[in-house]
Amino acid sequence: MAKPSRQHPDDARFDDEFLKKLDYLYIVSRKMAASGQRAKRQKKIVGSGLDFADYRVYSPGDDVKSLDWRVYSRTERLFLKLYEEEEDLHIYFLVDASRSMHLGRPNKWNYARQVAAALAYIGLSNLDRVSIIPFSSKVEGRLPPAKGKAQIFKIFNFLDACEAGEHTSLRQAFKTFVSQNKRRGLAVVISDFYDPDGVEEGLNALRYHRFEPMVIQLFDERELNLDFHGEVQIVDCETDEARDITVTPAMLKAYREVFEDFCTELEGYCKSRQILYFRAPIQQPFDELILRVFRAGGFLK
Amino acid sequence: MQWTGLPIETVLGVAGFVAVFITLLYLLRLRKRRVQVPYSALWGRVLAEKKRQTDWWRRFKRLLSWLLFMIIAALIGVAALGPRSADEVVEGRHLLIMLDTSASMGATDVTGGLNRFEVARTQALELLGSVGGDDRVMVALFNNRVQPLGPFVRETQPLEAALRAATLSANATDFGQALSFARDSLRDRGDAELIVLSDGAGLQNLDLSEFDPGEAVRVRHIAPGERSENLAITGFNARRYPSNRLDHEVFVEITSTFDRPVEARLELMSEGRIIETLPLELAAGEIHRQFYPGQAFAGERLEARVRVTTADAEDVFPLDDRAYAVLPQARKLRVQVVSTGNLFLEGPLLLNTHIEVTRINPERYDPQAEFDVTFFDNVAPPLPASGDLVFFHPPAESSPIAIRGVDDKPILTDVASSHPLMRWINLQDLNIARTSTFRREASDTAVASSFGQAVIVDRKLDDRRLIAVGFDLRESDFPLRVAFPIFILNIIDYLAQDDVDLMYAFETGRSVHIPVPRNTGEARVTAPDGEVRSAAIHRGEAVFYTDQPGFYVLTPGGEEPVAVAANLASPEESRIAPAELQLGEREVGRDAEGLVFERREIWIWLVLLAMSLLLLEWLTYNRRWTE
Prior knowledge:
The complex is a heterodimer.
Chain A: H1 16-34, E1 44-47, E2 51-57, H2 69-75, E3 79-86, E4 90-96, H3 108-125, E5 129-135, E6 143-146, H4 152-161, H5 170-180, E7 186-191, H6 200-208, E8 212-219, E9 230-236, E10 242-247, H7 249-272, E11 276-281, H8 286-296
Parallel strand pairs in A: 4-5, 4-7, 7-8, 8-11
Antiparallel strand pairs in A: 1-3, 2-3, 5-6, 9-10
Helix pairs in contact in A: 1-3, 1-8, 3-4, 3-8, 5-6
Chain B: E1 2-3, H1 8-30, E2 33-37, H2 40-50, H3 55-80, E3 83-84, E4 94-100, H4 116-130, E5 136-142, E6 146-148, H5 157-165, H6 175-186, E7 192-197, E8 217-222, E9 231-240, E10 247-256, E11 262-270, E12 273-282, E13 287-296, E14 301-308, E15 322-326, E16 333-338, H7 343-351, E17 355-360, E18 373-377, E19 388-392, E20 403-407, E21 414-415, E22 435-438, E23 445-450, E24 453-460, E25 465-469, H8 483-496, E26 505-507, E27 510-515, E28 523-526, E29 532-538, E30 541-546, E31 550-556, E32 562-567, H9 571-574, E33 588-589, H10 602-622
Parallel strand pairs in B: 4-5, 4-7, 7-8, 8-33, 16-17, 16-18, 18-19, 19-25, 26-32
Antiparallel strand pairs in B: 1-3, 5-6, 9-10, 10-13, 11-12, 11-14, 14-15, 20-22, 21-23, 23-24, 24-25, 27-30, 28-29, 28-31, 29-30, 31-32
């Protein structure tokens, strides 16, 4: 695994200026929440709360204290009475740290860190439990769930210390993630989604384990406006796979079309499964992306 | 097809190297530049679209590029071989280009506002530019002498530079000398060609049928010139009357080469001022000769000009419209007569107003007195310190020329009629009672002799002359004859060197020899155009070359300057009608047809084709039609 290079002027800086920007974003997010743009999503679990929620058939081993004897008297069948219980929202930021995210300067990794930090700050400010999980083909360590605004510096330090991973494999990484995290919650996936095996299996793994995925696709416009032409050998930075091609203007145009198709496919997949989807070039200021996320409302309680 | 370029072994070697080099470059070009991309799968999709193109086509496109380069290399290789068509003559020739720089080539009758020389020079330059690479060329200028610009050479660039620097002369043409030079230069040269660029002025009356340049030599004569209208002063001279040194007689010869009658005006000028204007009417081709007596000139420089006054006539050769002459300075001679009294001798001297005569009795004779000429009558005292000497009947014991004997009944049998003393007179029937005969030395000239015994002797001393007459005037009938005063005048003119023969007028293109005082170490000459150059001193004469018509001024050391006139004075040269060179039975070409080395430079087209293919390859490669 390659170590991150030394700090560069184009790298993300988690300094006071960045914090001020996050505070500003937080205020904006509260205004949006107060103006009715509240999220539909509410984290409620059925447990030992006070508000009645539902019944379910008794199973051996259930707490007999929750049996509804009135129902038993009428139906002679054992039903458990379930109550709603509110719990802190768990937000997992699954940040792609594969090599493709580290290509170029500035690169998508820096941008992803800024986005993750900003959203994490909003979450911390809302007293959510925020966890950062870098991944590539596997989960590259994790920041345990943190709560409270003061934890933002932990997040900064953790993101600063993250190193580049291997190739992208959403399926492998998210399988590991769902097996390690039993607490369901919002899973914000920040990635370029350059996975040769496709993204569906990985996102489905989240969905099937009752995580609520949210997709933020990053791309670099420089990857579309290539500055080379003629006879070249392109090498995949993650797989080292090489291809000899002759780059012509027509080919560049075809490449842009293929990329657009790629993004459209991902967006279509997300929309068809009611997954919030955002696409942003890293040349766009990250706070604009954050505001877009706010406007979509999926991130706010 | 024949090959005149590099040896085929060399070309094949170089071509092989180039082929290997191109192939290496081609292979190097196949090594693609590596570019790292984040996700090559997208390119895979793009390439999937391109899969319609089959692999063999892609390989063919690459091969096509290589093939283009190989064709380009092959074309350049063939170009280096110097391909020529089989019927093209590529053997080197020897070309001798002779360019006439004589005065008539200055005629402006050719179109374009040029003169004949400039036209001929342009033709010569064109010839130089069109010769083949194996040809050897010599260029020679000629007028009345030949000036080669170099030996036979292949490289014509220096010749072109020398040719551009060549200038027109004011000399006549010596075709005999020029053709002799050509014959000697082309002798034993294979495939030789003589090209004479000359208007042919001077060829009209020249028989060159005997000239044989050699069997292998082809001769061409290219003659610029279109018209013959010219009015020229072909003769101009002036002489002073012996009796009156202030009056002159002028002779002018004017030649018209117009083919119709023209009117003209002759102007006589002295020291730049017109002193006489004479109208002329000249018939077609007339040679007008005329004496103009009684001309009084104030100076020593005479000039004659002739101008056509007919309105629609144009003199296309102005160089010979002027002629120049120099008169000797007219000064009074100081003459001393040492005699006891001889009216026969004193009479002719006293009658001449340009002579200052002093009679001295022998007893009062002073050898230190300075006179131009001293006559001794029947006396022979010590010689004076300066001046020329004339002795009449010197005494035997003191005679400056040894007396051989006395002839009591002399008959003058031999008279040197060409001697200046004898001009216009005849002494054959002179009656002399008695005369002394002189013992001659080697340098003496016997002007008159009696049966081999010298009676009148002319001797040259170191810096003066001595004339001795053996008889007493009173013992002959010589003083009673008309010839006697002329004889005395001849003596004066001869000793004073004031004869008309000494009026210095020369033809241009000649080396002029002018006597200079003894011990003169250097002399300068000022040419008519103002250029000052030094004159060589050889055996008491200043020698310099005249190449311009006009007045040359010779200044020998610190002495008085001497003016010399130079004229074209060549009737042949003034007959500017173009004439053709005739060499008997030999064929002489009249133009440059076939002379220009028309090489079909195939190699140029091959190189252009190679460059076009290179451009095509560049275009197709940049447009990705080829790989």
